[in-house]
Specification:
Helices cover 68% and strands 0% of the residues. It has helices at residues 8-43, 46-69, 75-98, 112-121, 124-143, 149-166, 173-195, 205-235, 241-247, 253-261, 263-283, 287-296, 324-332, 334-344, 349-357, 365-374, 393-409, 416-432, 443-460. Helix 18 packs antiparallel against helix 19 (443-460). The radius of gyration is 30 Å and the shape is elongated.
């Protein structure tokens, strides 16, 4: 198929627009830079400027170290850290500017919302590291009001760390409100430690205002958390547990399409979801992502459902009348078809990637050897999926479970030993074929995955008692 050529006029217009945009921002940027320099010269001492510069450089250094070490660094981390962090810094500066006469104004900062959201959108480790940076910046900002920088740093840091500890999950909004009471208790205790110098100070205005401010801080943190979540999920199409739970609804149009048009594929996907979620949780990967991605990984089969064996009745197989090359072409297309349908329906990138990667570049052996029986000069690359190979642990596990489920289902009453041998053979084949090279799976994790899958399948296909046929016709005493 020939590529559609873009007219040269359109390309020139695009280049002209980009340069125009850059040029239009140049003058305001220069003007704002001069304004900022003038403001710093008039209002910021050299000491404060050097401290601010040091903190910025420290932040950039820590972030560069994180990005270098973290192989899973994603756009989601960059967006959340940048927008939520910048928003909170502006809010702290606004509180500092408003409460110039109150050196305890920092108590009202809803900084707990920052650590909760960073943990929710990213991971606990990154939330802990970034909370230290936020506490450093906050202590500098509020020290401009004469507040004790050490107390400010300690309060902001402990507020975030206790929030990370208390808020294990914010999927349940009721649980979020309940857990906030524990955080409020910690905040009150911190105020007592910092502000209560004597028994007489309990009735002082500063002490009472500090208690009011920390109460408002927790309230604002909960409100910000609940308010920002849907904005980030929808605005930046971010992958969160809330969104994954919504996508797992069987009434989603794509899942309904698969259920109606390819019921065998739907049942296969549910089985793969059960296996992959359990295996992911066994090694600490994202089980919920694996479950949801498994539901959607084969939606492309709904385009030509009768071409896939799980949707065929006991009648004639359409591949019997097709050359193996044509059959392979149809089968090899379904990961791309799945990814295309998922993109059209606006699913998260992580789910789309797994759908595209769940077969990697594996060889479609049945049709390859069938073609070799007809002629010897068959090129293997025409019978391999286009890939790419799995780029995450979840994608690699779904790659295993997808093949394992289909292979075990094809067996008639498989024994535990047969299941174990089959699972090990499939994993070994994928490993030797280089399918896990980019997935970050270790050998130790692969062994854990193998054991978990075997346990799950042995539980599903365990031996059952065969009842006599006529026993089903005899009513039991007291039965209905």
């Amino acid at each position: 198929m020939a590529k559609r050529k873009i007219p040269m006029v359109m390309m020139n217009i695009k280049k002209f627009n980009i340069h125009s945009v850059l040029a239009s921002f140049l003058t305001p940027a220069i003007f704002l830079t001069f304004m900022l320099v003038q403001y710093i010269q008039e209002h910021v001492s050299l000491n404060q400027f050097l401290i601010s510069l040091s903190m910025v450089l420290l932040t950039l250094f820590i972030l560069s170290m994180e990005i270098t070490k973290d192989q899973n660094w994603s756009r989601q981390k960059t967006v959340t850290f940048t927008f939520i962090g910048s928003g909170l810094l502006i809010l702290m500066y606004a509180f500092q500017a408003i409460g110039t006469e109150m050196n305890y104004i920092y108590y009202i900062t809803p900084i707990a919302a920052y650590s909760i959201l960073i943990k929710y959108f990213n991971e606990e480790r990154f939330a802990i590291i970034s909370s230290v940076l936020m506490a450093i910046f906050g202590s500098f900002i509020f020290s401009l009001n004469g507040a004790n920088g050490y107390y400010v740093f300690l309060f902001l840091l402990l507020s975030q760390w206790f929030a990370i500890f208390f808020f294990e999950s914010i999927k349940d909004r009721k649980s979020l409100l309940k857990t906030s009471m524990s955080l409020l208790s910690v905040h009150i205790l911190l105020v007592v430690m910092f502000e209560m110098t004597s028994w007489m100070s309990i009735t002082s205005t500063d002490f009472l205002m500090s208690l009011l401010f920390v109460s408002l801080s927790v309230l604002f943190a909960v409100i910000l958390t609940l308010g920002i979540l849907p904005l980030f999920e929808a605005g930046f199409n971010m992958l969160t547990d809330t969104k994954l739970l919504a996508l797992s609804n069987p009434n989603h149009p794509l899942l309904r399409k698969v259920l109606v048009e390819a019921p065998g594929t739907y049942h296969h996907s549910v089985m793969v979801a059960n296996l992959s979620e359990s295996a992911c949780e066994a090694i600490g990967a994202n089980g919920l992502l694996a479950r949801v991605a498994s539901y959607y990984h084969d939606v492309g089969k709904a385009i030509k459902p009768h071409m896939f064996i799980e949707n065929q009745n006991k009648g004639k197989n359409p591949h019997d009348s097709l050359p193996p090359e044509e059959s392979a072409r149809i089968i090899l297309e379904h990961p791309k078809d799945s990814a295309r349908l998922l993109k059209e329906h606006g699913l998260p990138k992580e789910v789309i990637d797994i759908a595209e990667q769940h077969h990697g570049t594996t060889l479609l052996k049945y049709f390859y050897y069938k073609a070799k029986d007809r002629k010897s000069n068959v090129m293997e690359r025409y019978f391999r999926y286009d890939g790419p190979i799995p780029q995450s642990k979840e994608a690699a596990i779904i790659n295993i479970c997808d093949s394992v489920e289909a292979a075990v289902r094809s067996k008639d009453k498989p024994t535990n030993d047969e299941i174990n041998e089959l699972v090990r053979a499939i994993i070994y084949d994928r490993l030797m074929d280089g399918q896990f090279n980019d997935s970050q799976l270790t050998i130790h994790e692969i062994l854990k995955v193998e054991k978990d899958i075997c346990d799950m399948l042995n539980g599903i296909f365990h031996a059952r008692i065969e009842y006599p046929k006529d026993s089903m016709l005899q009513p039991t005493q007291g039965g209905h």
